[in-house]
Amino acid sequence: MRLVVTGSVGAGKSTFIRSVSEIAVVDTDRIATQETATIKKKTTVAMDFGRLQFAPQMALHLYGTPGQSRFDFMWDILIKKAHAYILLVDAHRPSDFQACRRIYGFMQQRVNIPLVVGLTHMDCKGAWSQENVAIALGFVDKEKRPPFVTLNANKKESVIDALIVLMQHYLKDIQSAV
C-alpha cells in the first residue's frame, strides 16, 4: 500500500516517516534556502521514502513530498499511484494554512482517495484549535470533512495512531465503494 505524506514546509513530513520506518529512510534533504531557512536548516527537495511492515505480505510504503510549491512536479509523481494520503498541517503557523489549501486542491484535482488531516505542533504557543484549522482549510461542512487527527511526528506511537485512523478511513472508503 502506498501512502503519501504531504503538507507545508516544516509540518513534520520527514519526521513522520522517520518515526515509523523500519528501514533507513531514503531522503533528498538539502540545505534550506530563502524563507525556508528561517524555519529549518534542511528541506526535502524531491521525496522521502520509508516502509512499515504490517504482516509478511503487507507493507505500507511511505512517500513524503517536498513542502515547497516549486517542487510540485514531485507532488504529481508521488500522488499518482497512492492509495491514501495524509495532509500535515502545522497548527501554530496560520501563515501556512493557505499553502496547505493549495496542496489539498492540487491533490484533489489528481486523485479521489482517502485523506486524513494531521495537525502537528498543537502543543506550541499560538496553535489553532482543530475546528478553527478545519475552517481555515475550507472544511466548513462537518459532514463532508475528512478525519482530523492530532499528532506529534517525533513520537512513533502518535504517528502509528494517525496511521490507524488513516487505515480505518481507507477501509471504510473501500467498503462504501462496494
Structure, explained:
With 178 residues, the protein is an alpha/beta fold. It has one domain (2-177): Rossmann fold, CATH 3.40.50. Helices cover 33% and strands 28% of the residues. The protein has 5 helices and 7 strands. It has helices at 13-20, 72-79, 97-110, 130-136, 156-177, and strands at residues 2-7, 26-31, 42-55, 58-64, 84-90, 115-120, 148-150. It has a 7-stranded mixed beta sheet, sandwiched between helices. The chain is globular, with a radius of gyration of 15 Å.
How do the strands of the widest beta sheet line up side by side? 2-3-4-1-5-6-7
Percentage of residues in DSSP E strands: 25-35%
**What's the helix-strand series?**
EHEEEHEHEHEH
N-to-C CA distance: 19 Å
- Oligomeric category: single chain
Unreliable stretches covering 5 or more consecutive residues: none
Percent range of helical residues:
25-40%
Structural class category: alpha/beta
Rg over CA atoms, rounded to whole Å, is 15 Å
Apparent shape? globular
State mean pLDDT (0 to 100 scale).
87
CATH architecture: 3-Layer(aba) Sandwich
Q: What can be said about the biggest beta sheet?
A: 7 strands, mixed
Count of all domains = 1
SSE topology sketch:
Elements: E1 2-7, H1 13-20, E2 26-31, E3 42-55, E4 58-64, H2 72-79, E5 84-90, H3 97-110, E6 115-120, H4 130-136, E7 148-150, H5 156-177
Parallel strand pairs: 1-4, 1-5, 5-6, 6-7
Antiparallel strand pairs: 2-3, 3-4
